[in-house]
């Protein structure tokens, strides 16, 4: 792929992993991209401006003013110039400043001026990474539109300890960029970091139909879009996706490991049970009908026979049953659509259905109803409560996956 004309702002902060940034510059330059380096002063304790300037073939900016030349560095112009801003390595301090909107150096001024997608690759010691303050900052950043977190990976750390906190490998970061450039319309796409390669994700989607007779049924307005979009977003991350879908008018995404089309809650239940042992992550997005007619009448109920009540019986709660029987290594995601007392109801469902993550839909908010391409959700997990702003469903799906990634691999 030709990277000519791609403009990348590379922010480097004070971390031992700064040396890895030199490799990123080399790779990006060799692919034909333009790279402008902006560093924090602490970064220069780890790599020299001469190395960075030589590799990037551009001056390296650190200060607002280059006093030796009387030149003022226009952070706004830099922020607008870039197609993508990558901060790698991103220290705990810079993460906190980004989350808080602080502007005490040129890098932060450029960040605050950037209109392009911002990717950041955290690098820090494992306890710093696990600290609630860092978790809060990360949650804030990943919930911002156009922000993507790469890593951190697990392994040997500069402190001599081993755990999560290593900066993602430069090759992975460059590969993720390539995927992104290759993606259609240059829209912000998530990095494909192979994070979910080899993991199995089961997703239920759409409504169910509970037959009254051969032509009539009880159902709901679920379009299946959120579940299908989650399937697509997990495929982008390398996962093996098994999609079980009620009747919808969508085409299943390419590349699914399996696709099972069902009609009723009982059929969905049966299909889920088949995969119960296999999945690593189970996402129960389907709007399963709570009740079904006790008896389905054969043929068509005739109007001339008059009105007769339809006796209903409760359907199995598929998610609750999987929750009761799940293994410790399985991660369960439930959805709740509430019209009142949303948070309290969602918290209750998270606990009774034994979910690791509960996604609360706000039906009452504009742009977040049935069948729309946008959604607004709140995430409840052991990382706390995270509100995601109204966004296209694909963006919401990617942010939900980032959240699951963090809970599943890093907690
Ligand atoms: O209780 P409520 O229907 O609001 O719970 C919603 C969550 O439970 C969703 O994740 C939905 O897919 C799941 N569910 C289920 N089986 C049911 C009802 C709901 O799996 N019978």
Bound molecules: cytidine-5'-monophosphate
Helix content: 25-40%
Total strand segments: 23
**Class derived from helix and strand content:** alpha/beta
Fourth-tier CATH superfamily name of the largest domain: CoaB-like
Strand content: 15-25%
Mean residue pLDDT: 89
CATH architecture assignment name of the largest domain = 3-Layer(aba) Sandwich
> What coarse outline follows from CA principal-axis ratios?
elongated
CATH topology of the largest domain: Rossmann fold
Tell me about this structure.
The protein has 411 residues and is of the alpha/beta class. It folds into two domains: 7-184, Rossmann fold; 200-293 and 309-410, CoaB-like (Rossmann fold, 3-Layer(aba) Sandwich). The chain is 33% helix and 24% strand. The chain is built from 13 helices and 23 strands. An eight-stranded mixed beta sheet has the order 14-13-10-15-18-19-21-22, with helices on both faces. It has a five-stranded parallel beta sheet with strand order 2-1-5-6-7, with helices on both faces. Strands 3-4 form a two-stranded antiparallel sheet. Helix 1 (18-30) runs parallel beside helix 2 (49-56), helix 1 runs parallel beside helix 8 (170-182) and helix 9 (225-236) packs across helix 13 (393-410). The structure holds cytidine-5'-monophosphate.
């Amino acid at each position: 792929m030709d990277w000519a004309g791609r403009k990348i702002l590379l922010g480097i902060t004070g971390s031992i992993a700064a040396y890895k940034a030199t490799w990123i510059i080399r790779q990006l330059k060799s692919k034909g991209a333009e790279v402008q380096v902006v560093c924090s002063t602490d970064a220069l304790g780890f790599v020299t401006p001469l190395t960075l300037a030589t590799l990037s073939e551009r001056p390296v900016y650190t200060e607002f003013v280059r006093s030796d030349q009387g030149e003022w560095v226009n952070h706004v112009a830099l922020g607008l110039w870039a197609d993508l801003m990558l901060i790698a390595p991103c220290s705990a301090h810079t993460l906190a400043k980004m989350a808080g909107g602080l502007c005490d150096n040129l890098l932060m001024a450029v960040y605050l001026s950037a209109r392009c997608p911002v990717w950041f690759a955290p690098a820090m010691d494992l306890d710093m990474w696990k600290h609630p303050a860092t978790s809060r900052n990360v949650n804030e950043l990943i919930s911002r539109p156009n922000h993507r977190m790469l890593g951190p990976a697990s392994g040997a750390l500069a402190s001599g300890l081993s755990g999560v906190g290593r900066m993602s490998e430069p090759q992975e970061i460059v590969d993720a960029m390539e995927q992104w450039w290759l993606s259609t319309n240059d829209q912000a796409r998530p990095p494909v970091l192979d994070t979910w390669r080899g993991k199995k994700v089961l997703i239920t989607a759409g409504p169910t139909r509970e037959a009254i007779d051969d032509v009539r049924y009880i159902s709901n307005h679920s379009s299946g879009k959120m579940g299908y979009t989650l399937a697509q977003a997990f495929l982008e991350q390398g996962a093996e996706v098994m999609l079980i879908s009620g009747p919808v008018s969508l085409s299943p995404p390419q590349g699914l490991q399996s696709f099972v089309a069902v009609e009723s809650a009982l059929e969905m239940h049966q299909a889920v049970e088949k995969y119960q042992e296999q999945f690593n992550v189970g996402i129960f997005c389907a709007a399963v009908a709570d009740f079904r007619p006790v008896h389905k009448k054969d043929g068509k109920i005739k109007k001339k026979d008059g009105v007769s009540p339809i006796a209903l019986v409760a359907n199995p709660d598929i998610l609750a049953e999987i929750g009761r029987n799940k293994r410790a290594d399985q991660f369960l995601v439930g959805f709740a659509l509430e019209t009142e007392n949303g948070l309290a109801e969602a918290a209750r469902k998270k606990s009774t259905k034994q979910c690791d993550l509960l996604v609360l839909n706000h039906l009452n908010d504009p742009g977040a109803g049935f069948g729309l391409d946008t959604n607004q959700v709140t995430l409840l997990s052991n990382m706390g409560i995270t509100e995601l702003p109204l966004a296209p469903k694909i963006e919401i799906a990617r942010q939900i996956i980032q959240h699951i990634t963090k809970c599943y691999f890093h907690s």
